[in-house]
Amino acid sequence: MGKHFEAGFFANNRQQLRNIFTGTAPIVLTAHGQLQSSSDMTFPFRQDSNFWYLTGLNEPDIILVMDKDKEYLVLPEHFDWRSSFEGAPSAKDMIRQSGIETVLDSKAGWKRLGGRLNKVKHAATLAAPPAFVAGHGFYTNPARSRLHEQIKSYNQDIELLDLKQHLVTMRMTKQPAELNAIRDAIGVTERSLKALLRKSWTVENTEADIEAAILDNFRSFGADQEAFDCVVGAGLHSVIPHWKADQAALPKKGLIVLDVGAQMHQYAADITRTFALGTPSRRMQRVYDAVLDAHTYALTLLKPGVVLKEYELDMERYMGEKLRELGLIKSIEHAEVRKYFPHYTTHHLGLDAHDDSDYAVPLKPNMVLTVEPGIYIPSEAIGVRIEDDVLITENGAEILSDGLSRELKSLTMNVAKNL
């Protein structure tokens, strides 16, 4: 559950959801399900962030029911052989972690919930994502779709109300325990990158070696795990914002983009630094300085009341000026700017590296964001991104990841392999 989080945190979140929902329909939410990797093996389990936010539980297939002033958990169907091989959490542990006093087995739980569903016109839940998200090229967790089918099996005419906006609104503003967890994740990430700089590297090393060192540092410094797959892009790969490390040898000269984040107590850090392999050329330094200037400008804009939709338009115009100064574009038009700056400058950060958010909602104190402008020039094999995690304060923004230099530093390159 994490040292920062007691049962009261989750109980307060559930009460806040009741307060802003205001309806009388039962609230029914599901944990994620496990996903097959091969044969009888599963991928590492990752809990649905909204479910964890309301319960603190990291087990699959549990159902949370909040019905007026009553709440209970419904466990999945029990198989003795799974418990003997994998173990099973006790009801006592679930009560302690979540603060929910009633835990029912599958049969008793669905009997109680089904009887209620038969009598109501609405149930509040979270909309199921499409089975396949073409834009990202991945299949989604089917747990919500399965829950909807189960609900409909008791009442085919029931209307399902989507709670997403309520939970987005709640999660965008961080509570003290969440901020402490994020600070811990950032601290581990900072220490891991500093340790990386103390190592010596050669052209015999690969991006995968860099990634392995980062992950080892995360473990050494106490991270739960990585918050997302590390981005390690050297040379030409530096121009691909989400490049995944491969076994190609590091180039003798060029830039390497490292976008990494540790996870602590369920919460993510998300930090990017661009380093030089060898001595950077004047052109590389100019591009780097342009990105750093845009990063500094973005920080001056972030404060309570700012609407990210408008802020992103401002950042697009500002980055357009930088691109024109670099001779990459002649006119500051959307399509031209996005050839070299294809992503937003900022996203929310929390339980997910890309936390759910609403870009039309004005910023408030205790929101946590990233600032990550970048310029990518494929024809020159130059990619630069600088990313920090920032906290919106009463008067502006505090850089939470200020322990890492934003100067262009070089990885130490030696003749012989030293890993």
Itemize the secondary structure elements and their pairings:
Elements: H1 7-21, E1 27-30, E2 36-38, E3 41-42, H2 49-55, E4 63-67, E5 70-74, H3 80-86, H4 91-98, E6 103-104, H5 106-117, E7 122-125, E8 132-133, E9 138-139, H6 143-154, E10 159-162, H7 164-172, H8 176-197, E11 200-201, H9 207-220, E12 225-226, E13 231-234, E14 254-260, E15 262-264, E16 267-268, E17 271-277, H10 282-301, H11 308-325, H12 334-340, E18 368-371, E19 374-377, E20 382-385, E21 388-392, E22 397-399, E23 410-413
Parallel strand pairs: 5-6, 7-10, 11-23, 17-23
Antiparallel strand pairs: 1-4, 2-3, 4-5, 8-9, 12-15, 13-14, 14-17, 15-16, 18-21, 19-20, 21-22
List the main descriptive attributes of the protein structure presented here.
single chain, 419 residues, alpha+beta, Creatine Amidinohydrolase, Chain A, domain 1, Creatine Amidinohydrolase, 2 domains, five-stranded mixed sheet, four-stranded mixed sheet, 12 helices, 23 strands
Query: What Rg, in angstroms, do the CA atoms define?
Result: 24 Å
Number of helices: 12
CATH architecture call of the largest domain:
Alpha-Beta Complex
Global mean pLDDT: 95
Quote the CATH topology of the largest domain. Answer: Creatine Amidinohydrolase
State the end-to-end CA separation.
35 Å
Uncertain segments of ≥5 residues (pLDDT<50)?
A: none
The largest sheet, given as strand count, sense and whether it forms a barrel, is: 5 strands, mixed
The count of DSSP E runs of length 2 or more, i.e. the number of strands, is: 23
Q: Name the CATH class of the largest domain.
A: Alpha Beta
- In CATH, the homologous superfamily of the largest domain goes by the name Creatinase/methionine aminopeptidase superfamily
Biggest sheet strand line-up: 11-23-17-14-13
Q: What's the structural domain tally?
A: 2
Relative helix content: 25-40%
Beta-strand level of the residues, as a percent range?
15-25%
